Amino acid sequence: MAGGASGAGSGAVFGIALALLIQQFGYLDFSSNLVNALVYIIIFVLVFAIIFGIIGRALRGRALKKLEASTASTSGSPPSGY
Amino acid sequence: MTVARRSRTFGYLTVAVTLALLAFFVLATSPALPPPVRAASSGPLTATILFDGVNIANHGTVGSAIVTNFSGAFSTAFTWTPTGTGGLTVTQAEIQLLFFGTAIGTSSGAFLKLGPNSYTLSSDFTQNRYIYEGVYEIVATLSNNGTTLYSQSFFVWIQATDHLTIVNIVLILLLILEIYEVAALGRMKVPKQPAATPPSGGPAAIAPATTPPPSTGGGGPAPADSTPPAGDASPPSGGS
């Protein structure tokens, strides 16, 4: 869950930065009015928040699985004789 | 991760990537939202405006933006003719560089000219050459003491040297940072365990609880005598 939210946050920032970068290279018009610019930015933010959220959640889940497996292997069995 | 869960995640990812690519291509290759082209106002005069020698009449859309840069001064030549019969005074020519619909750069010249006339406005945004890049709308205006007589907008594609502006560098660094942040979500280090962990319930765990309060009277036995050594309080867990 935390991985998804964190990834979505990163994706939102990524979307804003990418939209501004594309504008810088002359493919988007942010100058004429604020509504057009906001529509573009919101689309980018939503799309990349979803993508990064999914990726972050998957990565976090996999890392947690690894951590659980690692913890179980290091402290799972008591010493012999007890 | 089970096979079903993995395939579901992969499906979400595929859909999201497809949507992202679709949105990107739609936005990047065609103007999804038509830019508001402000035609020349039908006011009391008609005018011809040349931006660095280029007539702005044919550059009212993003796709037909005039390619330029702000590495030096540029000129905007206004030539106007009153539509009416009476004399018309023009006192100011101005250009405004818009971003998010707001003027972020303004250049104007004041004068007093009557009837058909012309004026060349020299502007210099050199100090912002490392900041401005991309497509911007410029509004050229002729006015008389604050009253707009004529205005026309056009687009310029400002290209900084080698596309290497401060804003671009910051944005690219930001993109890399966010990708790294997401990638770092998958890296989780196993915390190092202490070399010698005392057994639970051992001396370290019970020592603070068995320490008696400071002795207030002199009659009682010494604390050290009344309390057995902490290590003797209980055998190590799992012992006997």
What does this structure look like?
The complex is a heterodimer of chains A (82) and B (240). Chain A has 2 helices and no strands. With 82 residues, chain A is an all-alpha fold. Chain A has one domain (2-67). Chain A is rod-shaped and about 65 Å long. Chain B has a domain at 45-179: Immunoglobulins (Immunoglobulin-like, Sandwich). Helix content of chain B is 26%, strand content 31%. Chain B is built from 5 helices and 9 strands, in the order αβββββββββαααα. In chain B, the strands form 2 sheets. In chain B, strands 3-9-8-5-6 form a 5-stranded mixed beta sheet, with no helix packed on it. In chain B, strands 2-1-4-7 form a 4-stranded antiparallel beta sheet, with no helix packed on it. The chains are: A mainly alpha (82), B alpha+beta (240). At the A-B interface, helix 1 and helix 2 of A face helix 1, strand 5, strand 8 and helix 2 of B.
CATH class of the domain at 45-179 in chain B: Mainly Beta
Element string of chain A (H = helix, E = strand): HH
Q: How large a portion of the residues of chain A is in β-strands, by DSSP E?
A: under 5%
How many beta strands in the DSSP annotation of chain A?
A: 0
Number of domains of chain A: 1
N-to-C CA distance of chain B: 43 Å
Which class best fits the helix and strand makeup of chain A? mainly alpha
